Amino acid sequence: MTADTTRLEALMADAVEVSVRHVESGGVPFVGLLVANDGWVSDPGVNLVRETGDPTAHAEIVAIRKAVQARGRSSLEGVTLLATGEPCALCYRVAASHDIAVVCFAVDRDTAAEWGFDYRASYGADETDRLPLVATAQHLAVERGLVPFTRYLDLHRSDFTTRS
C-alpha cells in the first residue's frame, strides 16, 4: 500500500461518514477520496449522476477531477484512491489512465450488488478485470463501511419493494 494503513483506515472511515450524509441528503452511497504519500488528501467526491445528469459523474471520477484541478496536473502517479464502494469498470479505467497506484474500497462489488447496486457486468464487458489496478485493489474494512448502503435501503425501501 502506498500510504500508512492506519491513516488510510481513518480516512476511509471519514469517507464513509461523508457517504452517510450524502445518502441522507438524497444521494447514493458512493464517495471517492485521493491520498498521496506526501500527506495531501483530496476533497471527497460524491456520486453526482442524478443531480447533474452526467453519467460519468461517479464519486471516484468527481474526486479525480477535483484532484487534477487542485494539483495542476493530469497524472496522479503514486496516489491511492479510497472508495466507499468498489469502483465500477469506468472508474477503474479513469483511475488507471491518471496513473493512480492503488485502489482501496470499503464495500466490494458483490456486497454492493446485494444492497441494490449491481454494476458487476461492466467488468467483463470491456475486460476491466484484466487491468493491473483491479487485480491489486484492496478491501479496506472499516467498522461502519456498510452503513451508507443500509441507510440508502432504509430510505428507499419502497422503491425496491415496488419493483418486485
From TrEMBL:
Gene Ontology terms, MF aspect: guanosine deaminase activity
**What highest taxon heads this organism's lineage?**
Bacteria
Q: Any idea where the CMP/dCMP-type deaminase domain is?
A: 6-126
User: Hey, what's the signal peptide range on this chain?
Assistant: none
Instruction: Extract one GO BP annotation from the record.
Output: purine nucleoside catabolic process
Q: Which PANTHER family match?
A: CMP_DCMP-TYPE DEAMINASE DOMAIN-CONTAINING PROTEIN (PTHR11079:SF161), CYTOSINE DEAMINASE FAMILY MEMBER (PTHR11079)
Q: What is this protein called?
A: Nucleoside deaminase
